[in-house]
Design brief:
mainly alpha; 7 helices; binds zinc ion
């Protein structure tokens, strides 16, 4: 019953969006090369959630040093479980020219964390340490693209 009433409305909304895309998009549309105050506000909104995870990141280092593999894994799946969502959301607000690099660095970061998780499962301290440092480097490179990160 409810869906029946929503569907026609959805059609109207989609038609409006399509019209706008045709009208506002196309070859004439300019790709922004600097941050508008509106976009900057969005970046500002999503930065703290990522900065908070960056601040906590070194907790991993102490677990690795102690060969505390249970805590390494709980930390990756616990507090860092939000990392992908937050980083992806922030990456999507960056300038179009910075987005490919931001996305590549984000992907690198997730890859290192996956391999760190694996190294922890196997008790491989050297590999865990390497993946931790590489993850941190990629995390910091990503953040260097974020204009509101200090
Ligand atoms: Zn890397």
């Amino acid at each position: 019953m409810i869906m029946g009433r929503i569907r026609p409305l959805l059609g109207v909304v989609l038609a409006v969006i399509a019209t706008c895309l045709v009208a506002c998009g196309g070859p004439a549309a300019k790709v922004p090369t600097t941050y508008t105050p509106e976009v900057l506000q969005q970046v500002e909104l999503y930065t703290p959630g990522v900065a908070e995870l960056r601040d906590r990141f070194p907790e991993l280092e102490s677990y690795i040093q102690d060969q505390d593999w249970v805590d390494v894994q709980s930390f990756i799946h616990g507090p860092m479980g939000e990392l992908r969502t937050r980083v992806n959301r922030l990456a999507a607000t960056l300038l179009p020219k910075d987005q490919p690099q931001a996305q590549a660095l984000a992907k690198e970061l997730y890859g290192h964390l996956e391999r760190l998780d694996e190294a922890a499962a196997n008790g491989q301290q050297v590999i865990a340490g390497q993946e931790y440092r590489n993850a941190l480097d990629d995390f910091d490179s990503f953040l260097s693209l974020v204009p509101t990160f200090e």
